[in-house]
């Protein structure tokens, strides 16, 4: 295996690319480029966090234009498979193989009430079922990790006098991962950006998330007790508080709009 991905980003030596990345000879260039990239990633054993070769080097070895490579990487970026960092390069965010079916989620980019509620309705089902599986499958080590994330979240809450998006996310992420089903994390992660923006600008709800705080502890207690029914119930209670906050935010905006039109 070559360690080119840990080296300098400005190298022009085409020999740095593994022979695994073969030239493309087909009419269906778009799919062929994607397949060639998948073969390269798997052949090189690249993992999330590793850097891909530059677009120029990829284009030279695939014998396609840089535009074609750029479009392929853009498709991967839209699917959440890679991340482009300005001045640094393109990095793998998720594992890829030819056997995987990648399905993008199209979500509204606004902070409007309806969009947030649509997302929350999906999240309600995912959170509840992930909690059930987590309670059924968690090992002692898993429970210890979830408790650690919970303690960090609780400390952040008391230190900042309110919920913090990052620590809250880390706690929920630990629950998703312990469920044993990677699809929970992938789907929820696609929704994360929308809710993160709401944390930053919560539609006038200054205490957004406060009401959900105690349910993180009760959710953990149910998981630690290996009680899937109780875990589902606590997860639903937690999401219900978020829904209440969204409705309060929508009511606040409606009131502000009436004032501005008066």
TrEMBL record:
Chain segments annotated as coiled-coil in the UniProt record: none
The keyword DNA-binding is assigned to this record: yes
A Pfam match: FCD
Listed SUPFAM superfamilies: GntR ligand-binding domain-like, Winged helix' DNA-binding domain
Residues annotated as domain HTH gntR-type: 27-95
Domain of life: Bacteria
GO molecular function: DNA binding; DNA-binding transcription factor activity
Entry annotated with the keyword DNA-binding: yes
Keywords attached to this entry: DNA-binding, Transcription, Transcription regulation
Name this protein carries in UniProt: GntR family transcriptional regulator
Organism the protein comes from: Phyllobacterium bourgognense
């Amino acid at each position: 295996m070559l360690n080119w991905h840990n080296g300098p980003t400005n190298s022009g030596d085409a020999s740095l690319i593994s022979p695994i990345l073969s030239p493309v000879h087909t009419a269906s260039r778009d799919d062929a480029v994607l397949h060639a990239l998948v073969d390269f990633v798997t052949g090189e054993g690249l993992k999330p966090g590793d850097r891909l070769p530059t677009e120029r080097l990829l284009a030279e070895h695939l014998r396609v234009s840089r535009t074609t490579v750029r479009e392929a990487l853009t498709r991967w970026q839209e699917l959440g498979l890679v991340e482009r960092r300005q001045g640094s390069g393109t990095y793998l965010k998720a594992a890829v193989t030819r056997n995987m079916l990648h399905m993008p989620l199209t979500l509204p980019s606004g902070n409007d009430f309806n969009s947030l509620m649509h997302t929350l309705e999906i999240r309600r089902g995912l959170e509840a079922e992930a909690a059930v599986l987590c309670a059924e499958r968690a090992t002692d080590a898993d429970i210890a990790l979830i408790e650690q994330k919970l303690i960090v979240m609780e400390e952040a809450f008391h230190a900042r006098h309110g919920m913090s998006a990052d620590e809250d996310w880390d706690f929920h992420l630990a629950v998703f991962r312990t469920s044993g089903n990677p699809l929970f994390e992938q789907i929820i992660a696609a929704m994360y950006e929308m809710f993160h923006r709401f944390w930053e600008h919560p539609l006038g709800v200054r205490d957004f998330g406060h009401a959900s705080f105690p349910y993180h502890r009760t959710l953990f207690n149910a998981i630690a007790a290996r009680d899937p029914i109780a875990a589902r119930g606590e997860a639903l209670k937690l999401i219900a508080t978020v829904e209440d906050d969204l409705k309060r935010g929508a009511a606040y905006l409606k009131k502000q709009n009436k004032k501005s039109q008066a």
